[in-house]
Amino acid sequence: MNRTEGAASARGGAQGGRAPRRSPAAAPSERRFQGIPISPGVAIGPAYGSSEPGSAVTRQRIAAADIEAEGARLEAAIAQSRKQLAKLRARLAFLPEDSQAEIGPLIDAYLRMLGPSRLVRGAHRRIAETLVTAETAVNDEAEGLAGAILATPGDEVTGRRRRAEEVHEIARRIVRNLTRQPFQSFASLPEGAVLLAEQLRPADAALLDPARIAGVAAAEGGREGHTAVMVRALGLPAVLGAAGLTEAVRPGQLAIVDGTAGTVTLDPGAGSLAAARRALTAFARERGRLSKLRRLPAETQDGQPVELQANFELPRELPLIAHSGAAGIGLLRSEFLFMNRESLPDEDAQAEHYRSVVEAMGGDPVTIRVLDWGGEKEIEALAAAGVVPEYGDANPALGMRGIRLLLRQGELFETQLAAILRAAMAGPVRILLPMVTTLSEVRAAREVLERVVRRLRRRGERLPEPMPPLGIMIETPGAALAADALALETDFFAIGTNDLAMYTLAVDRSTAEVAPLYDPLHPAVLRLVQFATEAALRMRRPVSVCGEMAADPHFIPLLLGLGLRSFSMNAAAIPRVKQAIRALRADDCARFAHRIMERADPEQIRALIDGFPRVEA
Length: 617
Ligand code: PEP
Ligand code: MG
Description:
This protein is α/β, with parallel strands linked by helices. The chain folds into three domains: 3-12 and 27-50 and 185-283, Glucose Oxidase, domain 1 (3-Layer(bba) Sandwich); 64-179, PtsI, HPr-binding domain (Enzyme I, Chain A, domain 2), CATH 1.10.274.10; 301-610, Phosphoenolpyruvate-binding domains (TIM Barrel, Alpha-Beta Barrel), CATH 3.20.20.60. Helix content is 45%, strand content 13%. It is built from 24 helices and 17 strands. Helix 1 (67-91) runs antiparallel to helix 3. The longest helix has 25 residues, at 67-91. The protein is globular, with a radius of gyration of 25 Å. The two termini are 31 Å apart. The relative contact order is 0.11. Magnesium ion is lined by residues 475, 496, 498-499. Magnesium ion binds next to helix 19.
């Protein structure tokens, strides 16, 4: 990709956070926001919000009978907007004082406009009098109001412009909540743009094209949420949880996203720009160095082989996976195939999709996880097909998620299993069940699988021999602690440390406010990983880690020491993890893990992990 000066990015680089440094040559207008480092690398480019440009709503009319329903839609979108802004207000306390002073009054102005304001009254009146949709009514009313503000004589012109822009901004927010669509405007962002959004859902992140977008930052989000997982998979430098960002940004303004330090800088001064450009060069050099590891074996110094596989969400990751030297796919998150579409993919479409991935892996195994709907993963097509309610449970992470939904929705499950079995004719495949908590779920899933096999045989389909192994995610404390019983009836385990940490610590993985409490090194999480691993090894069941923990080279000595020899991660992380493995001795790791598992204090554990001697491979 050709990038111009000031529109560039570098991916890869060191993991983990670093305190942001103020540049001595910071421009007076430079603003820096601290968020959570999500995906390493630096991006420099013009900033665009998710609604800029191209949030135009086509004019649409309604029937007189729909006035009331349209008014209710508008009220729901206003309530949603109010909720978002109230949340933002609550987070202001975490911002530097100058940002609080600037953003606080702005949020108050927005909240006033969402009360019984001229904008809201006018939009309701337009729905009733001109029979237009709520989106059209809000846009028309905002247009009229902003025009009137600009035409008011007497006031200073910059103040009038600012107030008019505030009206447009709140209208955009209401319309965004009305349409509830994934942001489709990414394709119209200029090449090399940096995307700065208030919130990026996993479905939105799946629409990002890393060949066009240099980097991403959002005010919401947590370290191990699926949005984070997705941007890492795409190798995009990214920061989440940078509160106040969207209120401060102007479309086209120059921005730096430093995904390693977790900072976003708007209007950078000469010093910050020079530092970011140096980081770009350093990352490119580092990436070149790491790519040389591609053909070297993942093996410890004392000759223990380790399997390194890639996690897969979207076909656009395949080149990155091929380049990483991954030995197959350890976790294919099939839910991304169901996102951003109006109807569900049928058996043929799914079989084609899985087959293309299996073929691309050229004989290396592909572990396909059946649909893990639920939690933060919204899938409009499932709601449209009536498979799930349009509005989720109050507590979606604890509700109808993963295998629970599939066992209720037999047709959905059977269709997917049939597609996977057909794709398994093209190469080695394993089937993975998400969100398992009890043995009865495994038994029920196996029965469904056997039914599907019989049905396909009756249909005359050719099927793989032997059948693909059926494994489970160990991602709930229930599954981890029942691992000995589960190992008796399953063919393999994939430990999902992302959800395991979330459910063990009762900390949402995608919420910025509680991000500091999310800690995979908490002894409770580690003991569950240890228990499940030992159960699998005793029963001679293959066991891997496919959560984000596997992608951090710092955690590898501990995981190896616990006996794990298979890891699956975002492709960009593989070379660095391989480098770490090649510098380690398995016997040192076993002693190290023993020391760690004697500790109960997460701080001490972190200190031990950070202090583990590392040798360059
Ligand atoms: C996990 O929970 O660790 C995992 C790998 O699954 P996901 O991130 O898709 O929930
Ligand atoms: Mg999970």
